[in-house]
Amino acid sequence: MDPLIALLATIVGYLCGSISFARLVTRIVAPDTNVTQTEVEVGDSEEKITMGAVSATAVSMHIGPRFGFITVVLDMLKTALPALVFKRVYPDTPYFLITATAGMVGHIWPLYHRFRGGRGLSTVYGGMFAIDWIGVFATSLGGMFLGIFVLRDVLVAYMGGLWLTIPWLWFRTHDLAHLAYALAVNVIFGLAMIPEIRQYIKFKREGKEVDISHTMQYTGMGRGIYKMARRFGALKDQPQSDEDKEESVA
Predict the structure, then answer these.
(1) pTM for the whole thing?
(2) How far is 62 from 52, CA to CA, in rounded Å?
(3) Most confidently modeled of 42-46, 61-65, 189-193?
(4) Partners of 41 in the beta sheet?
(5) Domain that holds residue 26
(6) What is the secondary structure of 99-151 as a DSSP string?
(7) Structural domain tally of the chain?
(8) In the 8-state DSSP scheme, what is residue 219?
């Protein structure tokens, strides 16, 4: 591996990742909206988890799921495209893994926005599209299934797909560089999520539950999995959302 090319791959990935599409989309669609602070309901109490991430989820919660989806796609592309370029130009050397990792770092700690960005999940899946596109669907759906149907824990549902990239990439490649990438993005994501994890653990200890029905439905995949979970009774102890109430009335 050439150190200069590795450095170039790092810089390109980081600078592309530092582009905050959450800010750009919001500025175009709703310039008076502040997406730097987002609150998530905690059960039936009046308390909330404060999310400082400037992300597609924040965009969905503030200005609507359609623009959140657009933001997700753009965030994935800003990691996938540079990684694909390096993979195409240097197919025998894992520079593209460096680019994908640096893109995630740039998304979380963007140079252009005082190092305050998102949490990096969409950029991981963007990188996965360049690395192994089948894994994007296998790990994300697997993580949702594990969190909702097996453990019934919203944090596992959110992070489970990322955890599954470790066994998935090893199973698919048996390559130490790919395994190192999977481990690295999990560690980076865990560090980025520390503020939310601390709040989550605090509420868990107090016997309060994060409202799965509220948080899941801000992404297209989350809404689909949520409806499936309710249909099979996996979330029967959770309160119905407004959308579910309307469907039951109809």
Answers:
(1) 0.81
(2) 13
(3) 189-193
(4) 48
(5) 3-240
(6) HHHHHHHHHHS-GGGTT----SHHHHHHHHHHHHHHHHHHHHHHHHHIIIIIS
(7) 1
(8) S
